[in-house]
Amino acid sequence: MPGRVYVTLANVATDSTEGFPRDDYTPHGYLANPYAFATSWTQGHGGNLRSTREAVGFGWLYPWARDARAGSQLEIAVSYGAESLVTRADFERFGLSAPHHSALLFEYLWRIAGFEFAARFVLVGEHELGLEMEVGRVPPPAPPRRGERERARAVTVYLAAVGWRRDGECVAEAGRDHYVDVGEPFGVHLLCVDAGSEVRWLGASRCLQELAIGSGAGEARGKQVAVGLAISLTPGPSAPRRLFAVLRREQRLGGGDQEQVRAGPGVRGRPSAGPGPPAPGVRAAMENARRRDVQLWRGGLRLEGDWPPHWRRGWVYDVETTRMCLFPAGGVFADVWPAWTIQWPRAVLAEGSLDALRLAYVDPELARRAALSLFRDAPAPNLPCIFQHGQPNMIAADGSMCGTSPAWCVPFFNLELLYLRTLDHDWLGRLYPFLADYLDWWLAERTDAQGWSVYKCTWEAGEDDTPRLDPERRGDNIVSEYVRPVELQAAMALSAAVLARFAAALGRDGDERRWRAIARQFFDRTQALWDAPSGRFRDWDRRADRFLEPTGEPSYWEIDPCRYSALAFTPLLADLATTEQTVALSHELEQCARPPWTLWPSWSYVVLEAALAAGQRAFAARVASEIVERVYTELDARSPAAPSAPTPGVAREYWPLDLAAWNACEGYGWGATTASFVVRQIFGFLDSQIASGLRFRLAPGLPERFLRPGARYALRNVPYRDESLDLEFAVPSPATRGQAQQLEARVGLVNPRACLVVDEQTREVYRSAVESRIHRFVVELGGMYEIELPPSPPSPLSLKALKGRGERSEASRWGWGTA
């Protein structure tokens, strides 16, 4: 049986300068729909574009895939002699693969009987799904026998527009216009084809009976119809044949401007005007998608070397999901903005800051613009969670428009990392006033009479309905008088300290002093919540006037949230813990190396960043690699794990152990947090805390199974501080018993620079005598190294400037840093 051999590792390597990294991706996924928007949790416009599950194709899901009520999809079948390829299992026998798997362009590839097929799907325009299908001859390995030559002359391609609806009838008709009607308010969908040869149209019964085309819609458990066509193609020996198709939604029938589409067998009509020839529009959309993919990936970070193939591809799924969740200007947003999810796109500070930080690995400029949009275009200083046109979607019981807090996904931590990654002073100047207004709002509106920061409701906290904050578990319940949460005091200290550093960078001395004073106040409040006997920070129960006591009941994600809380490590992440507290919390961290903390990006992100801050790098690398291995294996699967399981090839809302019990959303930005784990906790590329020059840190945490002699692991095209870095670790030989594993580190640059490397004790590891584009030095697995790349050979003053980065101080414990 033919294997999937069309994209080899050699192809992947040569793509480093060509743009999108072609590979053997899962033949499942989504395309971005930038025209989609929501106005409430039940009303949406535009829908999602997802690959069909049981057939080979793509289609619309209305209003969203999460709760789709109707849909229309374009499916492909192939007939050659006695062979009929209809289901995905049929195509798999002939090497079905997806070499191009981006948010803008999805390509299927397979071979049969000396033909190679490429079916490429792209969004042509609002409500228009385009298909380019290319059929070419593949030179045989040996001259075919005469009979085989005769049989290989022609192949029949079937295309079908398949419509389905859960709660009503659908209509399909072939004639002057070929369409399926999925009913109000989702409209009729016309199928228009440019094939360059005679087309044989098939009615609904023929499509469904002759080849069972349309069976893939059965996943919707709704009533379905189909209309299709058959095309006989005979490509020449050197010139492939192409056909183009568009599945276009029409919202009105031709009986008048106000006549709406209706469902039901007795209500038929023709669209007012069908689409024109699809070839020009599809070609233009394909060219635009390829151009944008090349633009992104030529300057974007990718994994190369001996990474497991599913990790290499998993990185691409994460990047493309993040990209898919970035929406263009529209509604209240004057520029691109991070919508966090393609299901009900909405602006949320917590998740949006994670998305922007992750996006900076491939497009820092776009990431900065998206982060600025969140603040600049918000309707209020607290950045209420809103849909695209400003409708609020998080309202407390007292009518307050809520947004996520400074604690949920630590947005100020993320924004400082984004600044440290780019050092864009102009961007910081534009963003700073909005950050200050946000924190001032929390100081004014979410501070109790004693000066403690509190939540209005659990939705602000991010941990919806948690009994830790709300015993009634209502979500919108007013909980300000219940608990003084640890993470919120620590996050306020962290955020104020970040603003102090930003103010200093902008020359706002008065602001800097004010923010430092506020950071100190919340540092003191955080310290007041340390419980020395239990060796951990604890929430304060205001009603009982004591630490919040454990309930002993697994009432939230199968744990007692009053005893175990991932967010209780926020003081560690924020560098607010003393040395003794850090030691105690390091032991407590092990409690979070299992579910539910490893199932949710928001929790695991805080735990693993806290582990890095505490110097628990082995723990961080181990837990991160376990999560990445499990999630990337699932994302790269050839088919869904179960009929109700999530779609492979796209990041999702969370990472459950049992995919068969899946009941959440796909196309979720923060589900791509695994990309952050790969870079920071596993490879160990960390932004320098010194906000000047070309500096960064390396803390290699590669898992033991990766340490094969001769193996190489690279991050290519890392955009960092106006430079493009190539970073690589090579495994020279196995470690000697009792000694740390040594790695050969390689730093590649576009422009020649000198290099200085020091370890945690500020001992010099490497110093270049001359400027070079490549620097090589030896590091140890689990170590921490600061790399400085000045434009000329470093002097002893440079080494002095780096001294102390591995030491703790009172200032660093307050989250202010030492530089």
Can you walk me through this structure?
The chain has 819 residues and is of the alpha+beta class. The strands form nine sheets. Strands 1, 4, 5, 6, 7, 12, 16 and 17 form an eight-stranded antiparallel sheet that branches. An eight-stranded antiparallel sheet has the order 8-9-10-11-18-15-14-13. A hairpin with a 2-residue loop joins strand 9 and strand 10 (115-125). Helix 6 (309-324) crosses helix 17 (617-635), helix 7 runs antiparallel to helix 8 and helix 8 (364-376) packs across helix 9 (411-422). It is globular and about 80 Å long. The model is unreliable at 1-17, 214-221, 252-274 and 802-819 (pLDDT under 50).
Query: Pairing-aware structural class of the strands and helices?
Result: alpha+beta
Q: Choose one word for the global shape.
A: globular
Count of DSSP H/I helices: 20
Rg result: 28 Å
Strand content: 15-25%
Using DSSP, what is the number of strands? 37
Summarize this entry quickly.
With 819 residues, the protein is of the alpha+beta class. It is built from 20 helices and 37 strands.
Which tags fit this structure?
single chain, eight-stranded antiparallel β-sheet, disordered C terminus, alpha+beta, 24% strand
Write the layout of secondary structure elements.
Layout: H1 9-14, E1 30-31, E2 37-38, E3 44-45, E4 48-51, E5 56-62, E6 70-80, E7 83-85, H2 88-92, E8 97-101, E9 105-112, E10 115-125, E11 128-137, H3 146-151, E12 155-165, E13 171-173, E14 179-181, E15 188-194, E16 199-202, H4 204-210, E17 223-233, E18 241-250, H5 278-298, E19 302-305, H6 309-324, E20 326-327, E21 337-338, E22 346-347, H7 349-359, H8 364-376, E23 386-387, H9 411-422, H10 425-445, H11 458-461, E24 483-484, H12 486-505, H13 509-528, E25 530-531, E26 536-537, E27 540-541, E28 546-547, H14 570-573, H15 579-589, H16 601-613, H17 617-635, H18 674-683, E29 685-687, E30 695-698, E31 712-720, E32 723-730, E33 742-753, E34 756-759, E35 764-767, E36 772-780, E37 785-788, H19 796-802, H20 810-813
Antiparallel strand pairs: 1-4, 2-3, 4-5, 5-6, 6-7, 6-12, 8-9, 9-10, 10-11, 11-18, 12-17, 13-14, 14-15, 15-18, 16-17, 19-31, 20-21, 22-23, 24-27, 25-26, 27-28, 29-30, 30-37, 31-32, 32-33, 33-36, 34-35, 34-37
Helix pairs in contact: 6-17, 7-8, 7-9, 8-9, 8-10, 9-12, 10-12, 12-13, 16-17, 17-18
